[in-house]
């Protein structure tokens, strides 16, 4: 009680899986320069689900490509599990198929209704099925951070709710973290712990909105039916459209 800390202690969270600091990125092409991101800083903790929304073409996918290590920031730092991300570290990784991952894949195929399509060619699957298969491929590798770029857009409404629910549970139970890029504000509000709103290109962070729901069971469907839902939706909508 009344304890005071005499100097600021740098917060070193064991739980932080991702940290971005002052990230800048510009595409250089023959046609010229396209600044895509300016001064992006945020972090992600274990068990956290963060949604990123912003105008089309503002730089959302670029942000995920940077975190995935596909491209390198022009300025700024990215840390994953406390280690700086370098190009070299991104090419190793996870292509192992063990007995365990195979068993997990079978389990997920069953859950997502793809069991009978296990040996099908992608062209024999519907768009929604292909998207579910892609998600299963990601989940089998058990990454610490799920990078999701519009992963549900080809799913019908019912499946989208179910898959979103599953992903949310996996993230929280298994202490993973997820970064979801979506243009669907309802999806962002129904799934995320926080929504990061980006400005138009070059994207900077306009605002971060923590989503807090007073619910016994915090599921996407319950959120959609809650009184807070509309308020958050409108808040984000307004913020997104206050540019123009
Ligand atoms: P979003 O995902 O928000 O729609 P992107 O990150 O895909 O936006 O793109 C941001 C901007 O960068 C866009 O103006 C796009 O045209 C440009 N851009 C994306 N990829 C490239 C590339 N490989 N070369 C040049 N410009 C690109």
Protein described:
By secondary structure, this protein is α/β, with parallel strands linked by helices. It has helices at residues 60-67, 87-91, 99-111, 127-140, 157-173, 185-191, 220-224, 227-240; strands at residues 16-29, 32-45, 49-53, 75-80, 83-84, 145-149, 177-181, 194-198, 205-210. The chain has 8 helices and 9 strands. The strands form 2 sheets. It has a 5-stranded mixed beta sheet with strand order 6-7-3-8-9, sandwiched between helices. Adenosine-5'-diphosphate is lined by residues 27, 29, 34, 36, 54, 56-62, 201.
Order of helices and strands: EEEHEEHHHEHEHEEHH
- Helical stretch count? 8
**Classification by helices and strands:** alpha/beta
How much of the residues is beta strand, in percent? 25-35%
Identify the overall geometry. globular
Q: Give the terminus-to-terminus CA distance.
A: 49 Å
* Low-pLDDT segments, ≥5 res: 5-13
Strand order of the largest sheet: 6-7-3-8-9
- Roughly what is the average pLDDT, rounded to an integer? 86
Rounded radius of gyration (Å): 19 Å
As a percent range, the share of helical residues equals: 25-40%
Number of distinct beta strands:
9
Largest sheet: 5 strands, mixed
Give the names of the bound compounds: adenosine-5'-diphosphate
